[in-house]
Inverse folding.
């Protein structure tokens, strides 16, 4: 897709959103995740504008212009602007020299759907600027600085999963990423006669951001309590069920539940990866359901719309697994569904959801795609 044609000096970037099959809220707990990029993207065009400091960014999606100077980067009151400004800030913090640029972007990723349009925005811009000004940043540095932009400028203490998936994914594969040592294993995204269907609740409850940082803090406090008596424990990866249970009375019920969820989710990711490699989709899907129940009951990041969508699939033989995806409190469920049942299912769940909530959900069929790609016209 081209937003503008003609000049040879434009650089184009395609930066994908991501899905996560299993391993939710585990990345910042140094656990395991199983994400991949998808075939839905943000498209960028960038060129140097010949100016020293002055930059412009136009978002077709927000129908919004942003103008700023490279030596006067400050936080904005608009979130999408902070993704841009945060990336520029992080690049400059690393001693890299930028010059004035013009950027136009257009997104086919729904906002707030939990498919990480924010990481796509950050990683796409960072990749484009890296190519445009020959900054010499490695892919991994782009992942890290994009995450830092979100942590420092937007204020979400997110983990590394979304940016990693947006940059490092390989078409047709899932990434089994260990967020402790950042070792990745690529697993073929082979779902046989099934497809991956996202069902978007179309709600994004405003508590999401605050609650996200709260969950992270709860886990960190629980870890500190456990560390007081176990100095060898560095992260929740060093904690097992027996050790957790020995802290039953020293942790609050909430802290206990959060850690229990994380331990169980990590072992579900290992199990699910094995099941997928062995082609056992039924077991893989069962673990997706277990993940949802843990997120709902122990980690408490689901909501009634997500629960409704997951519950609705439970007695459907042609659906192997379903769970909420991403940070929670809205956004999408991810479903593994037999391809020729998709139309029937969409019709049925659409009317049930509309009857309950007053508006229909949205459906997005996705495949495992390639990470961010940059090209010169
Ligand atoms: C958001 C964050 C990720 C991850 C997920 C939950 O998408 O950006 O780092 O924590 O939530 O798994």
């Amino acid at each position: 897709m081209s937003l503008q044609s003609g000049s040879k000096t434009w650089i184009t970037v395609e930066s994908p959103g991501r899905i996560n099959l299993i391993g939710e809220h585990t990345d910042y707990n140094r656990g395991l995740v199983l994400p991949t990029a998808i075939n839905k993207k943000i498209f960028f065009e960038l060129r140097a504008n010949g100016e020293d400091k002055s930059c412009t960014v136009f978002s077709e999606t927000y129908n919004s212009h942003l103008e700023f100077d490279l030596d006067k980067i400050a936080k904005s009151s608009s979130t999408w602007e902070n993704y841009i400004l945060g990336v520029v800030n992080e690049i400059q913090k690393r001693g890299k020299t930028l010059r004035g640029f013009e950027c136009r972007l257009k997104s086919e990723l729904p906002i707030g759907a939990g498919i990480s349009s924010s990481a796509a925005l950050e990683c796409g811009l960072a990749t484009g600027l890296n190519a445009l000004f020959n900054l010499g940043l490695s892919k991994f540095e782009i992942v890290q600085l994009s995450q830092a932009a979100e942590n420092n400028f937007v204020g979400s203490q997110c983990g590394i999963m979304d940016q990693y998936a947006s940059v490092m994914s390989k078409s047709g594969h899932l990434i089994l990423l260990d967020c402790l040592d950042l070792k990745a294993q690529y697993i073929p995204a082979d779902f046989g006669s099934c497809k991956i269907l996202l069902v978007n609740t179309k709600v994004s409850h405003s508590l999401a951001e605050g609650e996200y940082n709260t969950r992270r803090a709860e886990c960190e406090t629980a870890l500190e309590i456990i560390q007081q008596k176990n100095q060898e424990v560095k992260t929740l990866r060093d904690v097992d069920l027996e050790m957790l249970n020995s802290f039953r009375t020293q942790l609050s019920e909430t802290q206990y539940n959060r850690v229990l969820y994380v331990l169980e989710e990590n072992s579900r990711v290992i199990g699910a990866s094995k099941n997928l490699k062995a082609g056992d989709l039924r077991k893989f899907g069962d673990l997706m359901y277990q993940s949802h129940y843990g997120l709902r009951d122990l980690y408490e990041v689901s909501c009634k719309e997500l629960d409704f969508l997951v519950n609705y699939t439970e007695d459907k033989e042609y659906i192997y697994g379903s769970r909420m995806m991403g940070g929670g409190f809205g956004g999408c469920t991810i479903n593994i569904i037999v391809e020729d049942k998709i139309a029937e299912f969409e019709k049925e769940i659409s009317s049930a959801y509309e009857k309950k909530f007053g508006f229909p959900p949205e459906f997005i069929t996705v495949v495992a795609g390639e990470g961010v790609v940059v090209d010169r016209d």
Observations:
- Residues 49 and 101 are 5 Å apart (CA to CA).
